[in-house]
Design a protein that fits this description.
Elements lengths: L8 E7 L7 H12 L3 E7 L5 H10 L4 E4 L13 E2 L1 H6 L4 E5 L2 E5 L2 H12 L8 E5 L3 H12 L4 E5 L3 H11 L5 E4 L12 E4 L22 E4 L8 H8 L4 E4 L1 H16 L5 H7 L5
Parallel strand pairs: 1-2, 1-3, 4-6, 7-8, 7-10, 8-9, 10-11, 11-12
Antiparallel strand pairs: 3-5, 5-6
The protein binds 2'-monophosphoadenosine-5'-diphosphate.
The site of 2'-monophosphoadenosine-5'-diphosphate has 17 residues, from helix 5.
């Protein structure tokens, strides 16, 4: 008789709150597609319990974690090794538990780039880019966007100091500058406007700079929902060429995490489709 025990590798997403997360569905679809047996859990963990929860997951044989709001900066401190891109972002969204060590990585930036460039066909080289917001989400995407050599990347934020802080961190990588929403220069129309504020999630619609949108502008909301987000509606109503939500980035960052853990890259297109959220 075969007495081999089949062990299923354990993964999960840690956040607070986390009940809305689509990551379990996405990773189960990837596992099904690639023929991998994995278990993927939703783990609601408060900031005070973060370290205990991560170490317990590791101790009990967990293989990897996705980490989401509000833990992405804090969890970097628990990692024994942090990838270059996670260090640049100042945030970790993927942990791997390897031979007693914790490895931290960040797949958000590459997830956004794959969605913009591969899925949506946006040309970033030489583009004029505006990011609205200067919080954790913005720090995660500025480095990867600057690597694509845009003509200019401007960060507009309600609180000017926070935008200036991000500019200081990234200005060695390319042409990045800061301003308030009401001071966005519109001498040249923007090719791409990315909403990285958390305003929509809170049901708020800040005074986004209307003049930044022209008929050639691509609007991209890092937030997503089953109904259109306030920013995606705003962009469409202002006459943007296209206005989409960040479902594609969500699936792409998950694919990169799956690749880190399982060494196989899932095909994201059918997963986006299967979830009926194709951007
Ligand atoms: P995240 O990690 O999601 O980026 P965060 O670090 O708290 O979260 O940053 C939230 C961003 O949304 C900030 O840029 C914030 O602006 P401030 O720096 O001025 O606080 C922005 N934001 C949130 N609610 C907003 C609102 N109602 N109007 C304008 N900006 C808002």
């Amino acid at each position: 008789m075969d007495d081999k025990t089949i062990t299923i590798d354990r993964y999960g997403v840690m956040g607070y709150p986390v009940s809305h997360s689509r990551s379990p569905v996405i990773h189960r679809l990837f596992a099904l597609q690639t023929g991998h047996s994995i278990q993927y859990e939703l783990l609601q963990v408060t900031p005070e319990k973060l370290e205990t929860a991560v170490r317990q997951f590791q101790r009990t044989g967990g293989k990897g974690l996705n980490v989401t709001v509000p833990h992405k900066a804090a969890v970097a401190k628990l990692a024994d090794q942090v990838s270059e891109r996670a260090r640049t972002a100042g945030a970790v969204n993927t942990l791997s538990f390897i031979e007693g060590e914790i490895h931290g990585d960040n797949t958000d930036g590459i997830g956004l780039l794959r969605d913009l460039v591969v899925n949506l066909g946006v040309n970033l080289e030489g583009a004029n880019i505006l990011i609205l917001g200067a919080g954790g989400a913005t720090s995660g995407i500025v480095g990867p966007l600057l690597e694509m050599e845009p003509a200019a990347l401007r960060i507009a934020n309600r609180t000017l100091d926070r935008a200036h802080d991000i500019v200081k961190r990234f200005k060695h990588l390319g042409p990045v500058s800061a301003c308030r929403f009401n001071a966005v220069p519109v001498t040249e129309p923007y090719d791409l406007v990315i909403n990285a504020t958390s305003a929509g999630v809170k049901g708020e619609t800040p005074p986004y700079p209307t003049a930044a949108i022209s008929e050639k502008t691509f609007c991209y909301d890092l937030s997503y929902g089953l109904t259109p987000t306030p920013f995606s509606v705003w962009g469409r109503e202002r006459g943007a060429a296209k206005s989409v939500m960040g479902w594609g980035m969500l699936v792409e960052q998950a694919a990169e995490s799956f690749h880190i853990w399982r060494h196989v890259m899932p095909n994201t297109a059918p997963v986006l489709k299967q979830m009926s959220i194709s951007a």
